[in-house]
Amino acid sequence: MKLRPMILAAAMAAATLSSALVAPAAHAQAKEQFFPALVYRTGAYAPNGVPFANGFIDYLKLVNARGGINGVKVIWEECETGYATDRGVECYERLKGKNGGATVFQPLSTGITFALTEKAPVDKIPLLTPGLGRSESQDGGVFKWNFPLAGTYWVAADTIIQDIIKKEGGAAKLKGKKIALMYHDSPFGKEAIPPLQERAAMHGFQLTLLPVPHPGVEQKSTWLQIRRDRPDYVLNWGWGVMNSTALKEAQATGYPREKMYGVWWAGAEPDVKDVGAGAKGYNAIMLQHGAEKNSDIVKEILTKLHDKGQGTGPRDEVGDVLYMRGLQASMYGVEGVRAAQERFGKGKVMTGEQARWGYENLNLTQAKLDALGFKGVLRPLSTSCMDHMGAAWTRVHTWDGSKFVWTSDWYQADESILKPMVKAAADKYAAEKKMTRRTPADCQS
Prior knowledge:
CATH class of the largest domain: Alpha Beta
Structural class: alpha/beta
Largest sheet: 8 strands, mixed
Radius of gyration: 24 Å
Strand content: 5-15%
Shape: globular
Number of strands: 14
CATH architecture of the largest domain: 3-Layer(aba) Sandwich
CATH superfamily of the largest domain: Response regulator
CATH topology of the largest domain: Rossmann fold
């Protein structure tokens, strides 16, 4: 008669033991937030892609060293794109369902961003494109899943013209001037054209468009035209080897480097180090930060990671421009999840859909940024349903022959010019895709 209770007791004990064994594993899995990392450590763009990737990964390591996102450990996996759109899409498809599902993707390529813009809403995975991607995706009313945080190429182009206006002594002085846009012949380079055309119509300067084919080493014909036309300014919308090639050609042609401006992907150490003193005077508009060797975040990373042999790349690159860009992008990715936890549960793993809400309700005050180590490096950023960019601050730094130095105060993009352009472009996209704008109720979702 006692056999049945004994069997039941044994079964309950086994079930309890089984639960005890399974629960920690499930719990451990549930406490990991997965950040895929699309990188390019090989190919023509590797000299610029590598420091970005190292900064991106180092920040994720630092988050874990700090205790995770409210206790949630972050994990990541790199996938090599070589800056190729098809490979970027392959990486997306390969990683989107791993480790419980991707939190967010950061394509680090405008071409890849274009290719993923229609996939992300289906898979419910946000796309973060700080300083790159589709400029009109600032409009969250149409682009629910895209977040060009901190600035777009339209912001960069607009604020470069603002700096030129300041140098010339007023907007009226631009009338009759010649400005040449030398751009990477890709979606990335072409993004600069609309705001420059708008500004040219406003101020009466002549805009010349000079496309440079991938990867950017063949520029002889471009510089022959520059030598012939003698534009007052040359804007370099380049990436990778295109940038150093442009500076070498400018030196050979005798074009003054102080009359040249690069976008924020054309104003880093790999772009100028091989040219050295020959690049002196070259300017670049920056996505807030520059080289930040003395920043709190860099000091913390050196202490907590590199001093312990846990850094991702060479110690001497920590704090360089593109390394900082990787830190910036990675931090935005993490802080969106932290914001989502405030609504959906502190210490919980966020889905891509929940993280999307976090990126749309991001409020990075100066106090928060300072506490994260970005004092003097970054300015506040605040997103909303209709504004997926959240900030439009830039400044100019200039190569003095051995290092970059700040040569301007802060600029903000002129919303009276860009806002109508963003809405018109977003509305056009919505019409082409037969989409309707988001409702107020959707903004609360």
